[in-house]
Amino acid sequence: MEEQKKKRILSGIQPTGTFTLGNYIGAVRNWGQLQDEYECIYMIANLHAITLRQEPAKLRQQTREAAALLLACGIDPAKSLVFVQSQVPAHTQLSWVLSCNTQFGELSRMTQFKDKSAKHADNVNAGLFTYPVLMAADILIYGADLVPVGADQKQHLELTRNIAERFNGVYGPTFTVPEGYFPKQGARIMSLQEPERKMSKSDENVNAFILLLDEPDVILRKCKRAVTDSDSRVAASPDKPGVTNLMTIYSSMTGKTFDEIEREFDGRGYGDFKIAVAESVIAELSPIQREYKRLLADRAYLEEVLKTGAETAGRIARRYADKVYKKVGMLQL
Ligand code: TRP
């Protein structure tokens, strides 16, 4: 029997500070698990990062750190294509053509644009507005079939599909129309302080989130301070969002089901439970942190990985961009 061609998965993450436990459980950890079943492309979206003002030296360092962190989380450059967005110039070249096939009205409806322009009213730049077009180019230039994205990026993916369909309609079949990819156990990790809200590293309260690089004592402290509720039963329910969130974390770390967790902590109260949650997180993150430090110290290796990634990605992207330029009537060089 002929082997079926593997589907292509693409995702990206911005290099703006270290990831939270929520990014890890909800996204990056799954990325590693997809590598055998799919052809995976993972990108560090540093061009998207400058839609908000960044300090250049810091952005460079954070880009390296993001790369080291992805590898430390199990993304294997021998299996997946890993690269930095700005090192593949064809993305921005395609982005221009796509922006001429995207309506002002469509971009005006993007809720992330509305949120970010309200939050950064002093810097509502054109890049912030056309951000989803560049994201569409990131995806379409590799003919990606599937795109794992969180809820905040769903609207951008929907727009990507619309742009692809419209372009195909006008210029003939060109782009694969990508689908969202939502993992089977797509755990959404909430704030440890306000469990109705998503865990976010931009939260003012540092106790609301766990960072991937938090030291063990910090993780323990944050877990101990996590908001629970007045009774002391470890049980998942909609009126116990704090406890449920800790159970989700513990379950993601240990593979135990909610039933198993309820039995394990039957009659033991929150104190014991919170310590167990912290210990499970520490056990999972410690080896990642060690590997991260090792990789960051090996700058030559990291640069080699990114260089090889950018070259391979560049070849694929270049070919696609050429095809598109030809279709819209650009003179070939
Ligand atoms: N905009 C995404 C985010 O901030 C990152 C991103 C850029 C991305 N390009 C992408 C995600 C392409 C998926 C596919 O989370």
Architecture overview:
This protein is mainly alpha-helical. It is built from 13 helices and 5 strands. The chain has helices at residues 21-33, 46-49, 56-72, 90-99, 104-108, 111-119, 126-140, 154-171, 216-224, 241-254, 258-264, 269-297, 299-327; strands spanning 8-13, 39-44, 81-84, 146-148, 179-181. The strands form 2 sheets. The protein has a 3-stranded parallel beta sheet with strand order 1-2-3. A two-stranded parallel ribbon has the order 4-5. The longest helix is centred in the C-terminal third of the chain and has 29 residues, at 269-297. The radius of gyration is 21 Å and the shape is globular. The mean pLDDT is 95. The protein binds tryptophan. Residues 10-14, 45, 48, 135, 138-139, 147, 149, 153 line the site of tryptophan (TRP).
Q: Biggest sheet: strands side by side, in what order? A: 1-2-3
Task: Provide the succession of SSEs.
Answer: EHEHHEHHHHEHEHHHHH
Number of helices: 13
Amino- and carboxy-terminal Cα gap:
42 Å
The low-confidence parts are none
Gyration radius (Cα, Å) is 21 Å
Please write out the topology.
Layout: E1 8-13, H1 21-33, E2 39-44, H2 46-49, H3 56-72, E3 81-84, H4 90-99, H5 104-108, H6 111-119, H7 126-140, E4 146-148, H8 154-171, E5 179-181, H9 216-224, H10 241-254, H11 258-264, H12 269-297, H13 299-327
Parallel strand pairs: 1-2, 2-3, 4-5
The chain binds tryptophan (TRP).
Tryptophan (TRP) binds near residues 135 and 147.
